[in-house]
Design brief:
The protein has 144 residues and is mainly alpha-helical. It has helices at residues 6-34, 46-66, 71-75, 90-104, 109-112, 123-128, and strands at residues 2-3, 78-82, 130-134. It has a 3-stranded antiparallel beta sheet with strand order 1-3-2.
């Protein structure tokens, strides 16, 4: 287990953003179908905005509570843990999700905070009492 570097976190977020975009596309299809193929205007459709927000929330909180990692985090060897090293609860994962949005608002300062933080934690790590750790992959030797 090692502290997680900012670049590794960003790489996992980029990977996850592609997956979330695909899910948002799928969640949009029923709304387009209902409108007879016409585009959905998110500003006019409160239900549509709520569905999209729920998809993003369910993606992150669901993965964090089930396995402690999203698919992007898994690809980069990252794991979300509570301060005691256990799996996050729905409450702590939800708190982390909303705190991460707050971390993004001031031009990502809450994420960049990791650079200056002595424990290499972001704002949302501290708020939710969780942390992302890096578990390097173990190299295995082939049997001969």
């Amino acid at each position: 287990m090692q502290n997680t570097g900012l670049l590794r976190r960003i790489a996992a977020m980029l990977y996850d953003s592609l997956l979330v975009a695909a899910l948002l596309f799928l969640a949009t299809l029923p709304f387009i179908a209902i409108r007879g193929g016409e585009p959905v205007e998110s500003g006019d459709n409160l239900l549509y905005r709520i569905v999209l927000a729920l998809v993003v929330y369910a993606f992150f909180v669901g993965f964090w509570c089930r396995s402690g990692r999203t698919l992007g985090m898994q690809s980069w060897g990252l794991q979300l843990e509570n301060d005691d090293g256990g799996m996050p609860s729905v409450t702590s994962a939800s708190l982390r999700f909303f705190a991460a949005i707050i971390s993004l608002l001031p031009l990502g300062l809450g994420f960049l905070w990791q650079i200056w933080d002595p424990a290499k934690l972001t704002w949302h790590d501290r708020i939710s009492h969780t942390r992302i750790v890096y578990y390097p992959r173990q190299k295995t030797q082939k049997n001969q």
